[in-house]
User: Fold this.
Amino acid sequence: MSDDRLKLKNKKLKKDRTALKLGFFLILAAGLLFIACFGEYIVPYDPYAQDLSNALQPPSGSHLLGTDRYGRDLFSRIIIGAQTTIFSALALVAGITIVGTIIGVICGYVGGWVDSLIMRISDIFLAFPEMVFAIAIAGVLNGGIWSAAIAVGLIAWPRYARVARSQVLAMKNHQYMNAAKLMGTRWYKVILKHIMPNILGPIIVTAALDVGAMIMNLAGLSYLGLGVVPPTPEWGSMMSEGRSMLQTSPWIVLAPGLAIFITVVIFNLLGDTIRDILDPKQTRRTLNNHVQNMKAILSGRKKREKTLVE
Amino acid sequence: MNVLELKDITKTFPKNKKAFTAVDGVSFSIKKGECIGLVGESGCGKSTIARIITHLEQATSGEIFMNERNVTHLKGKELRNLYQNLQMVFQNPGDSFNPRIKLGSSIGEVLINFGKPRSEVKRTVQQLLEQVGLNPEFAVRYPHEISGGQCQRAAIARAIAIEPDLLICDEATSALDVSVQAQIVDLILNLRNEMNMSYLFISHDLALVQSICDRILVMHRGRIVEEGSTQDVIEHTAHPYTKLLLSSVFPIHPDAQWQIPTVPQATEEEGNACRFWQRCPYCREQCKKERPELKKISEQHYAACHFVE
Assistant:
């Protein structure tokens, strides 16, 4: 087989593999959503029912993941907790994607002082350490998962606005944007028909990669007591509740921790795969890449030093 | 009647804190049915003029008239209506169509925007494609699925769809290879005979312009240096810069009459000097002190040089 054909075959294989990967992670993510949607019908116990005689039981046949200090079944609580955690994260990502994109498109399209003003405001938001800012806002608002979502959303929108803005600015250099103007296309049609379809890819990639991070942020705020109000099961607050018993009953922390871990990994890998498909120009930064980059930089420096000496 | 008239158009861009004058007091007019060629080297302001006429760029000063109406400061709805009489074919055919929209929809968009009933659009698009020598089936293709020449034909179809009074071709053929260029030129000539449109044909290729246009304007560094009928400009060339352009069109002669030192990026302010003096073989003291204005040589033939009669 000639080299070219081999290359072609490899390329095709890679494409197939990406599609396969996408399917695989989509099924996993759909599974998580399914659990979140129909949690009520899956759970073996009422997640709110206290049974003090069964408190702090380690994982066993009757309680798959053990019980917490009030004797509530952890497995049931995690399944019901998936609802709060996953749905609020998805709603949050959807919300900031829409808001951020609208703001970014306006900035890029209108330009001028509007652009400068909004971008400076977004700079202010970006200048604070994310989590500290979120904690401050969630603390000011009156608690609950939605105030946590608003807090995280407030620190996350500038990224989306910037992605959308830079895409629109790049679009403006295309002649078909001028052509659209000459065709007498109205501004809202230019945005909807000519700009949006062409910039959607990078925005979706940003959003898909962000779902995992948003789950982490929300769980983090809940862990600090700024998210959901007990007794509503939520993974972050569940971990927080078990913190004091970490040495005697580690499963109370481990179970929700693992749930967060698995969910974040699935959504991150899904985001990665979506990126591979929608944005093939961006290569993934693997460890190998970094090593090679470092090698290249080091050898380049050596060469330069050599020529300098000579 | 003048379809288009430019009066003293100037455009300056800020460049390293200094103003760079891309177009410097350009005036000309295009009569109905006339085809005008605008030639000059890269960066002389040809495309800027096209962008100013189409309002993609605002002129710093000067006025634009279309069909005897002042259109310099049109905005919004009135500007949209202006495009019914004014269309442009862009330089890079591949980039002048949205890659995600089928060619038929792209061409149809302009028809719908200017009030063609939707039921007729499909038929009209197919007629247009046939008119520019494309298979009507191309309406369902995407821009990347066809060649550059075909794409440029489609772009021309889009531009003539609403039968504008003036069609601007901004380097419409320079991204294409020579044989395709000839086809596009043929197409434009045919359209000229069929439709009563005026053309502003912008190019750096004097030979190409010569074969299409009635009149030629030669631009050099933001100014028009020679203006006249094609015959006058080609056969009775007056300005040394036009001679330079002509000699570069026919490079077959090994003994080129004169060597011209090229001055790259001579953007520094020359005050009142002739802008060509550094490269001009006939340069004299007067050229470094005094800027020549357009002088009448014969009926309809003007040149901006001190030493023409």
